[in-house]
């Protein structure tokens, strides 16, 4: 699965970047990694389309991932208001986990904001609730540093409470766009996750590496421009409970 995804991303880039309508942006990414000694993979895509009034746009998201014998599908979307110095979004994401003799459905709903502090820094916060087979909430923050328009390093912390269990994640993420004419970046991520609840506690280290394809209408060329004018990046709806 992951080999097919990576090959498809490379084929798209080598064939040339498709021309998109004004304001439309899309991303696709694939990752491979490890959680608690188990191999993991993921494939995700997003597309952002402007509504044509009040600086609003809508974004759709789809994702698929696996770890050990579990399989997770997620899909959702966001309403986004963008300005040159910031953007805010309200999001809904549905998750379905199957495998290991269980099936779990949940919906995450919340919002987030990004603030652009000059060309060097982007700060993000997000939070919301979770309902369904399990219920709870989440909150998190991220600070990204562009020490080059095509190289970024960010650190993050996230906290999730879910039906009596609590998880706190600390981590770092790095991304590099080697060639602006071929908009595929290389990514690496490390997370240390701590879990407590039900009379016990534990922790694990999580890592993954991946590729990401950016499709933006001109004139976005650098990774920084593509992230700030494209899909939601650090405030995109996502799965917030790792364990």
Written overview of the protein:
The protein contains two helices and twelve strands. With 243 residues, it is mostly beta strands.
Mind sketching the topology for me?
Layout (H helix, E strand, L loop, with lengths): L1 H13 L10 E11 L2 E13 L5 E12 L2 E13 L3 E14 L2 E16 L3 E12 L3 E13 L2 E12 L2 E12 L7 E14 L2 E17 L6 H7 L14
Antiparallel strand pairs: 1-2, 1-12, 2-3, 3-4, 4-5, 5-6, 6-7, 7-8, 8-9, 9-10, 10-11, 11-12
Shape: globular
Return the average pLDDT rounded to an integer. 89
Class per helix and strand makeup:
mainly beta
User: How many H/I helical runs?
Assistant: 2
Q: For the record, give the distance between the C-alpha atoms at the N and C termini, rounded to a whole number.
A: 23 Å
Uncertain runs: 1-17
Strand order of the largest sheet: 1-2-3-4-5-6-7-8-9-10-11-12
Q: Report the sheet-strand fraction.
A: over 45%
CATH class: Mainly Beta
In N-to-C order, the SSE pattern is HEEEEEEEEEEEEH
CATH superfamily membership: monomeric porin ompg
CATH architecture: Beta Barrel
CATH topology label: Porin
The biggest beta sheet, please? 12 strands, antiparallel, barrel
Annotation, overall tally of beta strands: 12
Brief sketch in words of this structure:
This protein is mostly beta strands.
Note the main attributes of this structure.
single chain; twelve-stranded antiparallel β-barrel; 8% helix; disordered N terminus
């Amino acid at each position: 699965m992951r080999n097919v995804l990576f090959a498809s991303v490379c084929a798209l880039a080598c064939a040339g970047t498709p021309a998109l309508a004004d304001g439309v942006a899309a991303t696709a990414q694939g990752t491979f990694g490890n959680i608690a000694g188990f191999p993991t993979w993921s494939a995700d895509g997003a597309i952002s389309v402007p509504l044509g009034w009040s600086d609003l746009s809508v974004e759709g998201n789809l994702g698929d991932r696996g770890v050990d014998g579990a399989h997770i599908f997620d899909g959702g979307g966001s309403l986004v208001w963008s300005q040159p110095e910031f953007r805010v979004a309200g999001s809904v994401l549905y998750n379905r986990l199957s495998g290991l003799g269980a099936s779990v459905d949940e919906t995450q709903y919340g919002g987030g904001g990004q603030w652009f502090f000059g060309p060097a820094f982007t700060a993000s916060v997000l939070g919301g609730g979770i309902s369904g087979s399990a219920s709870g909430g989440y909150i998190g923050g991220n600070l990204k540093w562009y020490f080059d328009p095509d190289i970024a390093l960010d650190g993050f912390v996230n906290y999730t409470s879910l039906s009596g269990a609590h998880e706190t994640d600390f981590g770092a993420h790095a991304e590099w766009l080697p060639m602006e004419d071929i908009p595929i970046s290389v990514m690496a991520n490390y997370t240390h996750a701590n879990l407590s609840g039900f009379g016990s506690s534990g922790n694990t280290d999580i890592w993954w590496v991946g590729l990401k394809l950016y499709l933006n209408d001109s004139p976005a060329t650098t990774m920084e421009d593509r992230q700030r004018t494209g899909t939601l990046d650090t405030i995109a709806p996502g799965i917030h409970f790792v364990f």
